[in-house]
Design a protein that fits this description.
Blueprint: E1 2-7, E2 14-19, H1 29-55, H2 62-69, H3 73-79, H4 83-104, H5 111-127, H6 129-133, H7 135-141, H8 144-167, E3 169-170, E4 173-174, H9 177-201, H10 212-227, H11 233-239, H12 243-247
Antiparallel strand pairs: 1-2, 3-4
Helix pairs in contact: 1-2, 4-5, 4-8, 5-9, 5-10, 8-9, 9-10
């Protein structure tokens, strides 16, 4: 516990108040000075993501964000001089999460890991849905995102193409490079624009937080419809119930078949 001085607005002098939080003996003044800006910067990003996802990035001003946070616009500007800097920092988060999701999927010949990658990528898009909701507009206004989005698409396409080459068959034979590439592109297009489709279907409710699982489930079933004809009977049997269905909780009957 420590004692700190508190200024009484409108009155001269200060008064002492008790701070009941325990002090960390290893938390030096220098440490605290470093932590405070970092915590504020992360808090700003958390609130920006929530507001951008809810209302769309073009509809949230930096003044509105500062008011939501209870900080001054100057404090917000100190951490992020423009809304473009906020967007870039949130895209940083998305890129890190994308790399983690691709790594967690395991090797390309792991059928269950490959299938779990589909809802994982859709959930990732949902968590950063402001990007996909306003993608064309963002790319027009923020040229830095152009190469970053292209790189993210390429990562997803390469990962899915590798799994398609290992797991998918056509007339009993593995798909060739062109066939696998075309199927991978179709899946990535679906993953990229699925939330836009959801929004068009129901603009008032589609992107509300309580619709997350339903949107991911519907998108996963559509990706499944693209892949299912190319899976062997053995793979279909493995991918119907159990482990995979757990990832798609709520799918009728726990079955993945369209």
């Amino acid at each position: 516990m420590s004692v700190k001085a508190e200024t009484n607005p409108g009155q001269p002098g200060t008064r002492a108040v008790l701070d009941s939080r325990p002090e960390d003996p290893h938390d030096t003044m220098t440490d605290r000075a470093k932590k405070a800006p970092r915590r504020t910067a992360e808090r700003i990003l958390d609130h920006a993501l929530a507001l951008f996802n809810r209302y769309g990035e073009p509809n949230v001003s930096t003044n509105a964000l500062a008011a939501e946070l209870g900080i001054s616009p100057g404090n917000l500007y100190y951490h992020y001089p423009a809304k473009e800097a906020l967007v870039n920092a949130l895209v940083d988060r998305y890129e890190q999460a994308l790399a983690a999701a691709l790594a967690a999927a395991g090797p390309p010949d792991d059928a269950e890991g490959a299938w779990l990658l589909v809802p994982a990528l859709l959930r990732l898009a949902w968590d950063h849905r402001f990007i996909f909701r306003d993608l064309n507009d963002l790319l027009t206004r923020n040229r830095q995102l152009e190469t970053r989005c292209q790189a993210a698409l390429a990562l997803q396409q390469d990962a899915i193409r590798a799994r398609v080459r290992c797991l998918c068959l056509l007339d009993g034979q593995p798909l060739d490079a062109d066939e696998a590439g075309a199927l991978a592109v179709s899946i990535v297009v679906l993953l990229t624009y699925w939330l836009s489709y959801e929004y068009v279907r129901d603009p008032r409710r589609a992107l509300e937080p309580d619709n997350a699982e339903a949107a991911v489930r519907r998108g996963t079933r559509q990706a499944m419809a693209l892949l299912w004809p190319y899976l062997s009977t053995a793979q279909r049997q493995r991918l119907r119930p159990g482990h995979i269905a757990t990832a798609l909780a709520g799918t009728p009957g726990g079955r993945l078949r369209p």
